[in-house]
Amino acid sequence: MNARTAHAPAAGAAAPGAANVADSPIPRATYRLQLHRGFTFRDAARIAPYLAALGVSHVYCSPFLRARSGSMHGYDIIDHNSLNPEIGSEEDFAAFSDALKRHDLRLMLDVVPNHMAVLGADNAWWLEVLENGQATPYADFFDIDWAPPRADMAGRVLLPVLGGHYGAVLSAGELSLRFDAAEGSFSVHYYQHRFPIDPREYPRLLKPALESLSATAVPADARAELDSLVSAFAGLPARYETGAALVGERSAGKEAQKRRLALLVAQHPSVGSSIEKAVAGVNGRAGDPASLDTLDELLEAQAYRLAYWRVAADEVNYRRFFEINELAALRMEDEAVFEATHRKIFELLRSGAAHALRIDHPDGLFDPAGYFRRLQERYRLTRAQNGDTTDDHIDDTANDTANDLEKARPLYVAIEKIVASFESIPQSWPVQGTTGYRFANLANGLFVDGSAAGRFTRIYQAFVGESADFEETALRAKQVILNTSLASELGVLTNRLVRIARARRDTRDYTLNTLRQALAEVVVAFPVYRSYIGEDISETDRRYIEWAVARARRRSRSADASIFDFIRAVLLAEPGAEPEAGDVPFAAMRMFARKFQQLTAPVTAKGVEDTAFYIYNRLASLNEVGGDPAAFGVSVNAFHGASADRAAHWPHAMLATSTHDSKRSEDVRARIDVLSEVPAAWRLQLRRWARMNRSRRREVDGRSAPSRNDEYLLYQTLVGSFPPELMQGAMDAEAAVEYRQRIRDYMLKAAREAKVHTSWINPNKEYEAALGEFAEALLTPGEHNLFLDDFRDSLAPVAWAGLLNSLSLMLIKYTSPGIPDCYQGNELWDFSLVDPDNRRPVDYARREAALGEVAAIWQDAAGSAQPDRMHALLERMQDGLPKLHLIRRLLALRREQPTLFERGDYTPLKASGAHAAHVVGYARRHGGRGLIALAGRLFMRMGIQAGEQPCGEQVWQGTRVELPFLPDGTVLRNLLSGENVAVAGGGISMAAAWEHFPGAALEFELPTN
After folding, report:
1. Local structure of residue 299 (DSSP, 8 states)
2. Rounded CA gap, 146 and 458, in Å?
3. Is residue 815 included in any domain, yes or no?
4. pLDDT tens-digit profile of 502-515?
5. Is the bond preceding residue 967 a cis peptide, omega within 30 degrees?
6. Are 974 and 906 in the same domain?
7. Distances (CA, A) of 357 to 45, 104, 413, 416
């Protein structure tokens, strides 16, 4: 589909027609690196040779612009136009960039357009807003409601930063006014937070200082200067005067007067002493309420209101990233905001240091489609400014539609977008696709035995003693989120709806409370993350809105169902359908609809992924970002359908199996999936383990701790994550201690996210202690711990089948339509859990050594089938060498045949015979060349025992794969084992394809006429 890349140069090559601007070829494969103070640009540069040898084309880095000090992820950016000094300097980045270029690697940036880190004392833009209110250009950068319902909050922003109620914090003396003599400025400080004082309020502080100066303390001209400064600060335009000229006058004036004040204090220290005395008087004395009145009055005069952090849920008036008070949303729809936040990004693209973008959380943006268009247009302008005005790499033989799409997508852009199974992103978006959450769940579902859904449901419900299904759990969780942590966002949206309702006589009787309740029910019922209403409404968005309103109406207990008709009418308002004169205009309804869709996404994310996924634990491997735990497995036919659709419409979308956002790594999920094949054994194990461990439970608040649901999750977590090095014999003491702590940390996070027995906001310390002690007791060796040995014995066959699942998963990922992405370290087995567990240091020395080993084994085996060499490789299964070998070989193929993978079609293959249901086969073809991928699934149902390879005729028992498009006699070479297989009778046998390695990637080339 992407004709432009048919002639794309190799990674690292200069762009045609531009000496400094790199083109943006489609990646061959990406490798995600998490950069932070413990893994810097210099560290990344050191592994560039390894990544090149592995075979990826793009190093895909976590955000590395300046973030809050100590950030381990980089999404809390405080300055979009400088590098994070904890990751490295400009010189360090240049060394990293040079290392990539030397090894023909390119760089993919993780861009964070939705939000910035605020509060604290390190975001210059945010501090400008606090100091000046609306009288600064930066007031429009952040999505702040400057006209909230509370009259005392007009023109102010709520800052939910205090650890207690405002009055108590003030009385305790925790808020202190300080004077910065070097800057000539005043601020209030609260631990790590700084709150600038409005310069127009400086006279409150300078007048007492002026009055305290004696005639002999300073010369008359110094007193005159201070007096002049009092007048100058008082004469600044007010913070609510927002005209451009007045804003400019205020900005220039306040800084000029601050410089004058700093100079005066530097020249006359006694002036500074008088100011400090005045400051001390304002600060008053802790425990003396009357002495704090002046500080209270000063704070009340500011463009912000300091508040207890719990107040945020109800009253915060800036849009946040989810419910995180420290992350404020940006108005990226404003062109000035776009330019200010993307200057450094385009500098890197222009210089050829960066080549592709991953866009974080675009569903938070007001206008995602507009943002994507602006990215591409700005990139095209960047190229033109550097002398490249050609539409290079466009294939003249492609159809006009394909060329138009490629001209609109000169820059490779992948978006972090969660897509439901019935949803697709608009074809008109100028992006290459998503970052691969949907693929991760589709591919994982292949290894879940769908026929066991009913039995697994009964097992789960019997163990936990509850019968709620996932849909109901998710709806309740979304409702909890909307009524608690995101209640303020609901309030802001409700106020917009109230204004619309009261502008019309036929809707003005709807009360605030009924509108809020009905609106909440529609938000909760929304079937996807969000709609994408712009100037028009697509049929898809119309369908989702109708769906949500109808679902909300059915679930509602509201006496007046007509309110749902009103909400539907507002959301679906069409241009030219304005009400009668005097009524609310269409623009207000359309604005409401566009703000509405900025709320449904965080409600779904927090309600489903970060709450319901930790409550409904039937089969935990299904509880993955972008997944649907109600869907128990994916059929082979469904997988083929989705893959063919991706090949046709989004052939360059990313393919992820583990990410920094994953709830569990790919290898953990692959193990847990195996339980679906053995429901009877799982039921018996649960009963046995529960009996063994019942004495370790405690009673907290009259209930068992841990709960049965948390206990059920814990057993699955141990099945999925138990380290291979701890499965044999005596446990290594240091490794065992580390693993016990990892499990304690994970279970604490899981319980808090579930919000049932404890939570982040209201932690139940007694329950948390009981849960942690229970988990640790299960993993502590001892003569009284009957569980641990029984668990390890039971785990062995499941763990082995899980490894085979992982190999099949990698075969599928690296041959499917799309761009495979490897999360750091996952080229070997990785049994990590949700962050921060999946951000632990990666042992690259071990991986470099392993890559050398598999390269040597393959070199010895190259050219012919050498079973002894494959046997040597498979003997190292526990070390992960077969996984690394498979990835390396398939990336080599992608390097050798880029067109096959960029433009090749996708053809499902039919299997027949005893184990046909255990085969996932498909062909990728372009021209006369092609690849046949044959992966396996459900290995325990096939009877594979621990340590056995699913290879040979004894296993496959005559199972064949039909290849009707290949003539008999066509020779297929298995790139994973070096063996040749000939087509006979219209197909091949699985025994021949999988004779010495559990997977087949069969390359073929048809003779040309």
Report:
1. H
2. 52
3. no
4. 888 888 899 999 99
5. no
6. yes
7. 20, 18, 5, 11
